Amino acid sequence: MKLNNKKVVVFGGTSGIGLATIKLLLKGGASKVYAISRNPNKVKIKKKKLILETADVLDEASLKKLFKKIGNYDVLISTATGGERAIGPFLTMNMRGYRDSFDKLWGYANVVRHGVKKLKKNGNVVLVSGSPARRPKPGFVAISSTGGAVEAFVRAITLELAPVRINLISPGVIDTPMSPLKGKARKDFYKNATKENIIKRAGTADEVAKAIIFAIENEFITGTTIDIDGGWILS
Ligand SMILES: NC(=O)c1ccc[n+]([C@@H]2O[C@H](COP(=O)([O-])OP(=O)(O)OC[C@H]3O[C@@H](n4cnc5c(N)ncnc54)[C@H](OP(=O)(O)O)[C@@H]3O)[C@@H](O)[C@H]2O)c1
């Protein structure tokens, strides 16, 4: 599917990977791009074709209202984390934090359930999982379980959604506002987090956004996961 003149809805389009994606969508000729999150005012880009909307992916009533307002459209993307994810060893972790990490899955389930009704039949969906889903490391049990559930969710609904296509992008360590660290602490964090990867650096939001655009444009893929991970899976 060509981006030209397409109407695209991006949950999480206000930061990091989602924000990089809306920039590529606008550059690629999309006619209308909705960037949606709980606090969309952090987006400083002013463009006629960019519409900022406020919604929480965990709030089904507000999603229903929003999709009614948007009407028919071509592409549904969600990069929304949904909430906080627990990090740390399983045996001592806070179980509430572990359970809450699954908000990512419920957010994706909500946007797909309410969003595909107005999605055109030749349209497609792109969601985001993460490398720990298939290559966990110590301390990543919550992220790994959630990512695994998201990947299983996408495979499970692919046949039901057809002819609408749905694909996943699976990033490794990506330098985005998800990490609040600044200066040297930030540099050290990404250096340490990627030291065992084949490509020893954090990826950029733009590198992941390019894969999202690929999944939109390539009409011969559905139900698949594309790794953008600097070799995390093999390291
Ligand atoms: N960065 C990485 O290293 C990395 C690695 C693997 C996977 N990922 C995945 O990639 C995706 C994007 O991550 P990112 O790094 O771009 O993160 P980010 O910069 O923190 O962006 C997350 C976006 O999700 C929105 N959001 C979060 N909860 C929401 C909710 N309940 N309802 C609506 N919007 C919500 C946020 O906006 P508001 O706060 O305004 O709602 C924000 O726009 C996530 O699914 C993440 O798990 C990231």
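^ NAP complex. The chain is about 35% helix and 20% strand. The chain has one domain: 7-234.
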